[in-house]
Amino acid sequence: MAEKQSAKSRRGRPRQAEVARLAGVSQTTVSLVLGGNKQGVALHPDTCARVLAAARELGYVPDPAARRLAAARNNLLGVFSFTATFPTAVEHSYYPFLVGVEQEAARHGYDLVLFTGSSSGGAQAASPGALERVRLADGCLFLGRHIPAGELRRLVEHGYPAVHIGRRDELDNLAWVGADYVEASAEVVRHLAALGHRRMILVREDDDAPASTDRERGFREALADAGLADAAAVVRAADPAAEITADWLRGRCAEGVTAFVAEETDTGAAWRALLAAVEGAGLHAPSDVSLALLGSPPADLADRPRPTGFDIPRTELGAAAVRALTALLTTGETESPLVSCAFRPGSTAGAAPTR
Amino acid sequence: MAEKQSAKSRRGRPRQAEVARLAGVSQTTVSLVLGGNKQGVALHPDTCARVLAAARELGYVPDPAARRLAAARNNLLGVFSFTATFPTAVEHSYYPFLVGVEQEAARHGYDLVLFTGSSSGGAQAASPGALERVRLADGCLFLGRHIPAGELRRLVEHGYPAVHIGRRDELDNLAWVGADYVEASAEVVRHLAALGHRRMILVREDDDAPASTDRERGFREALADAGLADAAAVVRAADPAAEITADWLRGRCAEGVTAFVAEETDTGAAWRALLAAVEGAGLHAPSDVSLALLGSPPADLADRPRPTGFDIPRTELGAAAVRALTALLTTGETESPLVSCAFRPGSTAGAAPTR
DNA sequence: CCTCCGAACTAATACGCATTAGTTCGCCGT
DNA sequence: ACGGCGAACTAATGCGTATTAGTTCGGAGG
């Protein structure tokens, strides 16, 4: 009765050889039938039917590792994030991206492998080779800005299909998908200009992430296009809460500024500071001043009036990333598309007060 | 100049054989050295050093597919939910489970494969055999109550390691992890009893899911233990909004009922109805009547005062499910643990009014 | 001097699948 | 009656690694 390893070690997971035995054919035939017989070997329809029936009866599913090793593909797409994909704190979760990734992957017939990169509690998160695990999948999506560039570069240079969610120009040849912050920000500015605002200020944090500089560029360009170039003012605030005060706001208003624009950040600090300053100054938006947010408000401010601004299409970005990856896999073409953000009218911007 | 496949097909990614050649040893030795030599083969320190040096020089990284193939396990855990796609809302109850699953899986060195009912290449979600695809993973977690029992049984009977999140006794041999609703509900009742409440009513929906019957059992048992057995009353409401009205509430209060307990459901209908009835009756909790909720409030009522009751430890449940699954995989032992819920004092229950 | 032993390695094989180069068999043509 | 040919399959091999069963060699023991 002592069964062979075939039943024990693999827990009854059937392989092609077992399907073959049941169908009375060779393992080769099973592989051909189930693989779609792309090599054009002549196969009798009856045989195919028997193989298919046997595979179904045994519940056969190909082993992804073996497939991969045999230089074929898995139909698996990887998702790797250097922080937990499902963080305990929901504020900056990758979940919306994942929704789009999942939908688009399903549409293309791929399953998703979530590489539990450096989730708290995992093994050495930064251990060299941590990224190599993704090679089990046909290709991989990366998200988060803390992905070790060295390892990623290695993968890409070895021809591994990878797509980063979020612009990432430092690495040549790395495909990415990003949101078009430039255009989206410009649109917000045009909206404000159309409402009659002639002087406006952008409050941004003091770093040089692409997401920030792109917003500033859109802001400046739109103002220039509207003939208001000299009216542009950008404030870089390392500590918005301390710098964007009610007094500061009153000062700017006195100078003729009628609209204030904040960039979205992880914490929403700039936007919070603006809201607090307006309230502290005893003003009201949009009647006294107009406010706009270049992005989405933090979750805890959801009950506030919706800020005028734009929404980052996270779900669509996830889907676009999958499309870029499948393009890489099938045609080998590297594409790095910009996805448009959706303008959000909101209720914090109104007509500029007539002086 | 025609290079051998060694340089072309793999684009220079070195394998053990190349490391071996450089170090002047065999591939076996390389595998032993790099694998930590757990089998205790005698190896000369100098040899190890040479191998290590060669590996470093070539930038050798093991191929995960080959590694997993040779190990006859691929360190993949499946997560299957029968919803068509991922729920879009982050607040969805599904999310906290994933948090725990991801953390615990990472801790055990597993990666996750995400399956959804419709991932089969966009084919019919409910097509027979939809569940078979999970065999790609070493084992699988199931969540959602709409998982087809027949297919699941098939998997389990074939010895496939599966763990269901949520109690599921209908299937013999199916491991599950569940929340201890009986004890948690009993604790809430004890809390109310300690506050002086002598008559209380449980409002539940009209179905027989384990989650509902367990809560009722805890409710009844705690009352019996407190010597208030005859004071127990359970209302099954098919349409809580229509049945739990202000008039109804006044009627019960007139009969001496001082506390109302609702069970948590998907929609939170029972709890909503109770809140509305209390308000409609011009009463206030906890001063006039005490309220308790056997579970967590729906997300949109988060700003309301926190209901007295308990929280389902979803994250911990996800982690427990992973532990149960790894136990199944390594020792083959089926365990189905109950996880304790955390009592939530809240602010909707107070001392019973002295009559 | 031959044997035996342990140290230090290596040859061979399995893992599950895909692919290439056959092999077998029935039948047609001359 | 025999070569040939296509239809229908299968044997053999490779992918890169882990593991098991050897093999070689120098020296100690009898």
Automatic annotation (TrEMBL), chains A, B:
InterPro entries: HTH_LacI, LacI/GalR-like_sensor, Lambda_DNA-bd_dom_sf, Peripla_BP_I. PANTHER family: HTH-TYPE TRANSCRIPTIONAL REPRESSOR PURR-RELATED, LACI-RELATED TRANSCRIPTIONAL REPRESSOR. GO terms for molecular function: DNA-binding transcription factor activity; transcription cis-regulatory region binding. Keywords: DNA-binding, Repressor, Transcription, Transcription regulation. Residues 14-71 form the HTH lacI-type domain. This is DNA-binding LacI/PurR family transcriptional regulator. Pfam families: LacI (PF00356), Peripla_BP_3 (PF13377).
